[in-house]
Amino acid sequence: MSNATQLIHSIPVDALTGAISVPIYQTSTYVQEAPGVNKGYDYARTNNPTRATLETVIAQLENGSVGVAFGSGLAAIDAVVKLLNAGDEILAVDDIYGGAFRLFTHIYEKFGVKVNYVDTTDAENVFNAITSNTKLIWLETPTNPTLKVSDIAAIAKIARAHSCLLCVDNTFASPALQQPLTLGADIVIHSATKYLGGHSDLIAGLVVTKEKELGEKIKFIQNASGAILAPFDSWLVIRGIETLHLRVQQHSRNAQAIAEFLETHPAVGKVYYPGLKTHRNHDIAQKQSRGFGGIVSFTLKNDTEQAATAFVKSTRYFKLAESLGGVKSLLCHPAQMTHKSIPAEKRKAAGVADSLVRLSVGLEEVADLIADLEQAFAKREQEILVTSIPA
């Protein structure tokens, strides 16, 4: 079965009514025949048929055993970290999402969970950084926002050899392009807010585990902590998954063209996109994924926060906003937005420069998007020219 067919037909027809669209079970509780005797559902925090369908679908798409749906991507991350104990250590990718950094550093470190950050683009760095207390290796690949790519299969071997869990944030690639569990990871997480939902109209997080026993532990944490995904939002993610394959294909085509345009522009310093042959781990990206995704980041030659701020305020079709993965193109300035919670020295050490701009390339005609970027560059050049003329 092709990937596109699997995506579409992983969503079941309703067995009760034959509805082609999954019903939204908007209920908080369920009538029982007797105490503890029910139809598989007793309370909606513990389980809900709409949410259960989404959890089954994402487990199938990631070739996993158990899927678990949460109220946000950070709630999903939080549930995975709750597998650990005080004194355990996380070995995390250095170019990490700012929200994950904030959660690890400001919440869990005070409970005795230590986090070590390392450049995971070289698997040897991971091997050298593991300690006897390392229990979880945390990857984003590609990373947010500099699109670093790590060799999942190679790091999975290291994790197994040291009895560590390997968790991969697969948000940027989605299961349409990459399946980390097939490559040896133990856990996959998604901010389903992004490509899985795909329309910038929901907040959701997903966890998928390779082994059933580990999945049941996450499921217990979901029920005990209560950060569940609501029925309507579960339905929205299911609806988004129906078109995931086509959307990601177009996102990727547009992003490739824009990355190639930026690479030749005189105002651009460096372009970050795994589909470029100049990308450090382009070969690994080709090996482990079916495409390169819809995110492109770049720095300006005028490497200042002020230059980046002026640029992101100058576009027309690229809207200045947090988040990514929606139909409409977005852009942001990570140093002031998504990664503001990371100290400047750590941010810069990981490659997040002051002038770095992240593009979430949408589904518009790519010629229009390139023209939008071109006019934003031209506007900036004109402003620089005007301000440089003596009074």
**CA-based gyration radius:** 22 Å
Physical arrangement of strands within the biggest beta sheet: 1-7-6-5-4-2-3
Would you identify the CATH architecture of the largest domain? 3-Layer(aba) Sandwich
Q: Strand-and-helix sequence, N→C?
A: HHEHEHEHEHEEEHHHEHEHEEHEH
What is the beta-strand fraction?
A: 5-15%
Number of strands: 12
**How far is the first residue's CA from the last residue's CA?**
69 Å
Low-confidence stretches: none
CATH level-1 class of the largest domain: Alpha Beta
* Sheet with most strands: 7 strands, mixed
Work out the helix count. 13
Q: CATH-wise, what's the superfamily of the largest domain?
A: Type I PLP-dependent aspartate aminotransferase-like (Major domain)
What structural class results from the helix and strand content? alpha/beta
Task: Explain how this protein is built.
The chain is α/β, with parallel strands linked by helices. The protein folds into two domains: 3-242, Type I PLP-dependent aspartate aminotransferase-like (Major domain) (Aspartate Aminotransferase, domain 2), CATH 3.40.640; 245-388, Aspartate Aminotransferase, domain 1 (Alpha-Beta Complex). Helices cover 38% and strands 15% of the residues. The chain is built from 13 helices and twelve strands. It has helices at residues 3-9, 49-61, 73-81, 98-108, 123-129, 152-161, 212-225, 231-242, 244-263, 282-288, 305-312, 344-349, 366-388, and strands at residues 66-70, 89-93, 114-118, 134-140, 165-169, 187-191, 205-209, 268-272, 295-300, 319-320, 330-332, 357-360. The strands form two sheets. The chain has a seven-stranded mixed sheet, sandwiched between helices. A five-stranded mixed sheet has the order 8-9-12-11-10. Helix 2 (49-61) packs parallel to helix 8. The longest helix has 23 residues, at 366-388. It is globular and about 75 Å long. The mean pLDDT is 94.
